[in-house]
Design goal:
This protein has about 190 residues and is α/β, with parallel strands linked by helices. The chain is built from 9 helices and 5 strands; from the N terminus they run E-H-E-H-H-H-E-H-E-H-H-H-E-H. The protein has a single domain, classed as P-loop containing nucleotide triphosphate hydrolases (Rossmann fold, 3-Layer(aba) Sandwich).
Length: about 190
């Protein structure tokens, strides 16, 4: 089993790289962003709460995210070689909860991939994404709030996984193919 966490600031290319990893390693992709956008689109009560938070550049509370991801992990069937988590965990509390969830199923995280991209490049990518895909959360004010929240809450997770010796930092500037080549080499080496 290969269980991957892909991390990085908004706009770092997590979704793009996740798609390539899923295709080449046959992993189940669990994107919390997609899950939350689906709730918003469905107009559920959870979706309404999430929309208010996301439009203000804030994170969804840990308790909600942990429940969402625990349910999603339980639904992953044996036809996959493992899973890739995109957008989770975002806090140390979520990382600790994830460890417990996986341990209960006899699993563990194989590799934590941390994609690093310069802030100016992130802002440019996110503004472009907002124009192309019409994402209302990709405006300059919200982007700056999301990057600030990412920096203060998510980066401590790196230390959590460094202690577990499965942390890998990837330079996220370059072509999609160059970045994926680095990722593929790391996952392959960790899975031997």
């Amino acid at each position: 089993m290969i269980n991957v966490i892909i991390s990085g600031a908004p706009g770092s290319g997590k979704g793009t790289q996740s798609d390539l990893i899923v295709k080449n390693f046959r992993l189940k992709h669990l994107s919390t962003g997609d899950m939350l956008r689906n709730e918003i689109a469905a107009g559920t009560e959870l979706g309404k709460q999430v929309e208010k938070l996301v439009s203000g550049g804030l994170f969804v509370p840990d308790s909600i995210m942990i429940d969402i991801i625990a349910n999603a992990i339980q639904k992953v069937d044996n036809s996959y070689n493992g899973l890739i988590l995109d957008g989770f965990p975002r806090t140390v509390e979520q990382a600790q909860a994830l460890e417990t969830i996986l341990e209960q199923q006899g699993k563990k995280i194989t590799v934590f991939l941390d994609i690093h991209v310069d802030e100016a490049e992130l802002i440019e990518r996110l503004l472009k994404r907002g124009q192309i895909y019409g994402r209302t959360d990709d405006n300059l004010e919200t982007i700056k709030e999301r990057l600030k929240a990412y920096s203060s809450k998510t980066q401590p997770i790196s230390d959590f996984y460094k202690k577990k010796n499965n942390y890998y930092q990837i330079e996220g500037n370059g072509t999609i193919e160059e970045i994926y080549g680095k990722i593929e080499d790391i996952i392959t080496a960790c899975n031997l």
